[in-house]
Input
Amino acid sequence: MTVPDSPHAPASTPSGFDRAAGERAVGTLLDDARADAATRVLAVHGDRAPLSGSGALQFAAAADVSGDVQWAFLGRDEQGAALLLAAAAADAPAPLAHERWGALRAIGGDLDGHDAGVLAAAVSLGRWLVDAPFCPACGSATLVHAAGWARTCQGCAREHFPRTDPAVIVAVASADGERLLLGSNAMWAQQNRYSTFAGFVEAGESLESAIVREVHEESGVRVSALRYRSSQAWPYPRSLMLGFHAVAEDESTARADGEEIVAVRWFTRPEIGAALAGGGDVLLPGTASIAHRLITDWYEERA
Output
């Protein structure tokens, strides 16, 4: 595996967002931050966050948040002010009175680096706080500590942390570099939607082995010349996407597995260019996803 030089940043790279993890051990951190007028709160409703008129994240004051929410310390902004999370379940009332909301997977690609990083962290942590209140070992209720970043079981005293599952996502090019192999997932409503190949890393498996296995299982193609691109936090449900480029060893073996992938297709550079521009007969992944970045890399011949 080689790591190429890249002049452009990976998807959802945070800038100016300091997680300030060393502060989480301060027991009064959340209470102190909620009482501070300078603190900015990002209210998250499921995977949605409030947006300003310009499409940026709309932060609020702690006093503006209502309802049943889970609080956490996200970090500090460029001015040193605390950034807090107030997370509510998707089926609960919204934690903030606001008209315009946007989901991470829909708006992440339109946000600047700071807001994209904050929102990815907020949705990832918020989902864990809302969805995992009980100990997976004994079933007892847990107590949140470390300013929202850890839980301790009241029954067996085990400590738990937000779960992150590694997954590989791969753009597969032809040997001459002139065509790109994409697949259409059985779960997608639009049959003309295509994307790169992806799958979870199994227990005891390396990233490289996972790439070879997943691509072959889904497309019938064996790949080599693996090149790491970048990673992206993707809380659907709790993934860390590890993006790669690869080359097909034998293009003629391409075929859909018929279960997870219902169609595979080799695309030329003009076809991908038309789809990226919103034309043609194919829908590609949105700009919030690392899949879009991998496809764009190949189209712009930066893979």
Q: What stands out?
A: The longest strand covers residues 223-234. The longest helix spans residues 113-131.
